[in-house]
Amino acid sequence: MKTVVTTGEIVVEIMATRIGQTFLEPGPLVGPFPSGAPAIFIDQVGRLGQPCGMISSVGADDFGTINLERLAGSGVDVSAIAVHQGAATGSAFVRYAPDGSRAFVFNIVNSACGLMAMNEAAEALIARADHIHVMGSSLFSTSAIAVMQTAVDRIQARGGTVSFDPNIRPELLAGSMREALEWVAARCDLFLPSGAELFLFTKARDEDGAVAELLAAGRSAVVVKKGGQGAVFYDAGGRTAVPAFHVEEVDPTGAGDCFGAGFVCAWLRGDAPSDALRLANACGALAVTAKGPMEGTRFRSDIDAFIAAQAEVAA
To answer: Hey, what domains does the chain have and what are their CATH numbers?
Structure first.
């Protein structure tokens, strides 16, 4: 089986408990939960049984410990996650609006994540990797970008592949990030945008035109995530659409990251697009059924049981 790696932020997430709550006054919160978009992604990859690891940094504190223990327990190689004395693990406070949108207050750049750098353990993990998944949210600093670019260059030089999920948070968007996003977009094999992210790197403003432009520019495949409407896969062979599984949503955090994990693992195994989308949709659906960014990630046996149960209901 191919080994998947990712780089980027590891944080704890602390969440408002009331819809419409603000951070302008005291209010009830729940957490801390292990989090960070690439950490959620790789946690789900590990639970799917795919060999995997992550390059990142945490502080020598309780928040770092709960992340390391969670990832290791899911089967993730955490040897390249550096632990820094005197630096705090990153954090994200999230609140929910009545329309379903979320707003974040992040401490990433000035946390232990900001100390991310290539070291011997990171070099060793990259040396045995076959695929790297890049999250746009992880391009938060020059050091994080440098680590990502080194990993992409070395893995691709050995014939490995790259997937890219823009996953852009307005709160993190900075000048250097746009350039880094374009750098990854030009090199990725598999592009996994959500909604309007499809048009970030195209002149076309309709879905078919944008996809055609991306494939002509060298992408092997494009997967457009459509939330409750499912997802669509495009490659040179055509278009495949698979509807979403309908579940009761508890917390949307991490759904796209888990979807990406399911699709990347299936794609690397050579599964048919419809099967890969079905697995990805199941991972994304289950992700929203629990409160907390990683609380909805599942092991493969649970996901297969969910898909089978949904098929029985549909029949």
So the answer is: 37-56+116-310 (3.40.1190.20)
